[in-house]
Amino acid sequence: MNPRVLIVIPAYNEEKTITAVIEGLRRAVPDYDRVVVNDGARDRTGEIVAALGEKQLWLPCNLGYGNALQTGLKYGLQSSYDVIVSFDGDGQHRPEDVQPVVEALLNSQADMVIGSRYCHGRTYNSPLGRKLGQILFSQLTRLLLGRRIYDTTSGFKAMRPSACQMVVGGVFMDFHTESLVHLSMADFKIVEHPITVHERESGRSMYSFASVLAYPLQTLLLTVVALVDALLQRRKS
Fold first, then answer.
1. Which of 21, 26, 68, 191 has CA 20 to 30 A from 144's CA?
2. In this structure, which long-range contacts are made by residues 169-173, counting pairs with CB atoms below 8 Å and at least 24 apart in sequence?
3. Fold for domain 5-236?
4. pLDDT, tens digit (0-9, with 9 covering 90-100), for 162-202
């Protein structure tokens, strides 16, 4: 029996890319279900998704990537999917990479597989501020976990329900470094699988100029909270 797979697509103002993303997923993985989480989009994203006949969860306003993803994960858990995949709606991820990432999860003992831009010596061109932040938090995972997770900010992940349940039960905001540290400290196995990522051609990244300083500080704080929470849970058990 084939596993039931759900692809969760958080989307905020992605009218220029969402059609290509959905049609690409339909061609690449036609047997997988999809749900778009409309994060209070102010453009035609919602109209386009509706016209395509896709399932769509509407948030009342722009609540941010973390809350949008959490909504999709909860939907997947309530609907008893075997695998839940997070996939960005901005056109940077390749639909043809979904099947290999899911297979990497199913063919291993991993609880989460990260679609990684950087593992196996790969590189990805990104703004200097984001590149430095990525290196910082990648090295932080080495310090805290004893092994390095190269792509801590990837929005492309395949997860088993147990990992999703652990993630949505946390007090996190971005589902990036802090969630990976929390899962690893709770003995969930995380591996990376190499993918190719396209440069964003339209829309705005959630990482603005103002976030160059704010985001690393926020992530560092959340990671400390995640670490303390994981240690407290270990002590209780």
1. 68
2. 170/226, 170/229, 171/225, 171/229, 172/66, 172/222, 172/226, 173/64, 173/66, 173/67, 173/218, 173/222
3. Spore Coat Polysaccharide Biosynthesis Protein SpsA; Chain A (3.90.550)
4. 999 988 887 666 788 888 988 998 899 999 999 988 765 55
